[in-house]
Amino acid sequence: MEMKYRHEYKYVxxxxxxAILKLRADGILKKDKHVGxxxxxxxxxxxxxxxxxxxxxxxxxxxxxxxxxxxRIYNEDITRITLEKKSKSRGMTxxxxxxxxxxxxMMLMKQEIxxxxxxxxxxxxxxxxxxxxxxxxxxVIVEYxxxxxxxxxxxxxxxxxEDIRSSNDLGDFLEKNIKVRPIMEKxxxxxxxxxxxxxxxxxxxNMDTNALQRSSFSKYYLCRRFNTYGGSRI
Length: 234
Hints:
alpha+beta; 11 strands; 6 helices; eight-stranded antiparallel beta barrel; single chain; 38% strand
């Protein structure tokens, strides 16, 4: 897991913008080593919030210092489950995380905190303690297809997140097939650009984002707004 704060910009792309920019990325960047034959992988996350929906409202109001907690799996593989905390500070982000067993995951899905043991990593002890003290509970599932590109110089990572869907069937998080609802029109995507100290000039030139709609909202916020608060698709 990344252990330093990074820059992160997000943009909403319509179908045409998404197709053009992804074609440009194909021409100048390498794919992430974990992608499949289609150049993508599937992500499913179970997000947590407290009883006052603090995470949701902090995102909505644009609070500069905020955290989000989630459990994540890739390509429906429940042998690799991670608990993550994503922190935002002054427009930059930090991600910390640890592995979970299936039993620990299922406990958290039922609003139960696994026993904190000395043989756990310090990160895992801290994250479980924070979930307990903040009385966090699972609130929404977010699922999408990610097309990731990387560049070593500047530790740049560019991702196109498509087919973003949400579900309130929280007990089915580890199931292969779950009921989901799309929150974006077909072909749209969320483009995320992440980097450390700099972005190489050739990426800036080819991946021109000036015409795009920059967004401060997270996929978590968008899915909860659509599922729970009756918001419309973006």
